[in-house]
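Researcher: Please generate the 3D structure of the following complex. Treat every line as part of one assembly.
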Amino acid sequence: MAIVIDKSQRWRVVAAHVFMIGLCALVIFPLLIVVAISLRPGNFATGSLIPETISLEHWRFALGIPTPGPDGQMITPDLPVLRWLWNSVKVATASATVALFLSTTAAYAFARMRFVGKKSALLGLTLMQMFPTILALIAIHAIFSRIGHAFPLLGIDSHWALVLAYSGGIALHVWTIKGFYETIPVEIEEAAIVDGATPWQAFWRVLLPMSLPILVVVFLLAFIGAIIEYPQASVLLRTQPNLTLAVGSKQFLYAQKYLWGDFAAAAILSGLPISAVFILAQRWMISGLTSGANKG
Amino acid sequence: MANLQFKALRKSFGDMEILHGVDLEIQDGEFIVFVGPSGCGKSTLLRCIAGLEEITSGELLIGGVPMNDIPPSKRGIAMVFQSYALYPHMTVAENMAFGLKLAGHSKVEVADAVQKAAQILQIEALLDRRPKALSGGQRQRVAIGRAIVRKPGVFLFDEPLSNLDAGLRVQMRVELARLHADLRTTMVYVTHDQVEAMTLANRIVVLNQGRIEQVGAPLELYNAPINRFVAGFMGSPKMNFLPCTLVAAAPTGATVRLEDGTLVAVAVDATGQAVGAALILGIRPEHLEASRTGGEGRARTAVRVAEHLGDTVFLYVDSPGGAGQLTVKAQPEDPLHMGDEAHLCFPAQRCYLFGADDRTLPRIA
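Model: Done. Output below.
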């Protein structure tokens, strides 16, 4: 691929590069500021990008390591940041897994099966999800409060309640996976059925392995969505040890005192599981899994 | 091994009826080919046998057992798809073993069966590869291998060669014929290619718009098509059709007048038709003769295009006195050229006459 380029095109290439570098800076800059704030002594939101003195006090706080106070006494941090991080990872992993299971099976039905009301069901699912979750907060609270009376495990202030709430938001995932399924020739599943597979076996042993890339993408999206979600978690979780990091971080910022430094360290911590999952998932996000099935 | 019976089989998709009542018997061990233009229902009929489509009404029996409500895996069939439909995430060996594994055969049995099938198809060296790393012809073999290992009573082929290039298609055609001779299993084969039908079939079923037009041995269909559709469909290039009027009819033969006034004698018993009736004269390109010199019963026309294929020449000539074009298959020695005047001769024994209802009039042997 080396197409001959007109000379006047060169300036456009330069301009495009400038634009893209600018865009990258725009994306990276806030992250660098957060890193800087977390390493700067004191809790100031403003200051130079490269701190003059580096202090690990905020990181010690976030990681729960006792620090010597002004009077020389060791002070143990009063906010369980690592525990919140663990809560976030737990809820995100569980809800992404449930969401993946529900959306792959639902998408299979929508992509491959013939049933009455298919179109309206798909449309209805999407329409309902278009309303912002905030508007449903009161309903979500009421529902889980009620469920909690019957099943305390799924009541207010339970992680399972949060997992259940998050797992409901799969309409977009269903659309995404359905679109992918539709690119896979039906004949492959028909071949499996003639070979003696049940519809479930054809789905599980033939269709799903070919859909791996899209499953990874959907899992990632669901995972990230759960890690950064605030409104529902803030309503459903009550006690401090149960909070997720997104909700808990709010406790650094109260009216009398803004602990920007601690907040920044916690923010970076919350990004770590996302990055880790992303790196792990990347090896499965490969194209061409279906090549070879057909003439190609 | 199994025979098949169709009894008034109908298939509709919603309000659209695709198959309008198919009655047919396929003998055990027969190689039967469904042939017809696209949309004639041949693939639908095959999918009904496989159980991939529900039968709307009528009955299908395989080995004497009604199959209407039996799922595909229990029908004792194996199918080779047009697109091969291999499992891309499995190796060749796993692809072939999939059905047996699901049926719960032991590992040793499965490995044995796969090895045997691989030997028959000469793909032993490919067993550890993924379909991605195979050529089109090799993929086709794997697809066939996947069908063989299951030892089905009936093989179903849905246009299996249409994705291959011309050379490979001929090679696979020969191998399929050999495979049938070896296995002696009933095979049902769908194609729109009449050459495949002629070369492979014990019997051909010609379908058109959801109905069976004619069933018979290849040469029977070629020599004695029952109507104009079958006559036009079987044989390549297809039969020439010319409008004509009946001038005289006797039990010993008939005379027709072409549009340009030429009188042609044909060995057809047209006594059932009124003199003056509008008929269609049919003659195959290989039987139509074109020469430089005119004479009685010869129609004068001009060569539009001449295609030299080496062993033969195809001449495309204007239809005498009418619109349209006729094809003549000529010998390469001293051929006519583009723009030459040509005189067409219609050998009486080679001509067909079709009535107003498109049915073939009885020919005199």
